[in-house]
Amino acid sequence: xxxxxxxxxxxxxxxxxxxxxxxxxxxxxxxxxxxxxxxxxxxxxxxxxxxxxxxxxxxxxxxxxxxxxxxxxxxxxxxxxxxxxxxxxxxxxxxx
Length: 96
Prior knowledge:
By secondary structure, the protein is of the alpha+beta class. Helix content is 26%, strand content 25%.
């Protein structure tokens, strides 16, 4: 796969969107490394495509995984915020 991506000029990072990303807000005293390992255990370590130590951003390979991610580290729930909230368009129906 990497050979094909290099040949086409599109890397796996260029395919990621905001919908693939989440921001974690770890409790005080919890390292970003602990959060990274927890995210990897939940979605699979190979599914974590990018992580930022400074701000707790994680990008995973599937928008479904990003939407359903819940992280608990050392028995403490870690707040997970999506980078985007896709809005669904609703249309009204004209009634009688």
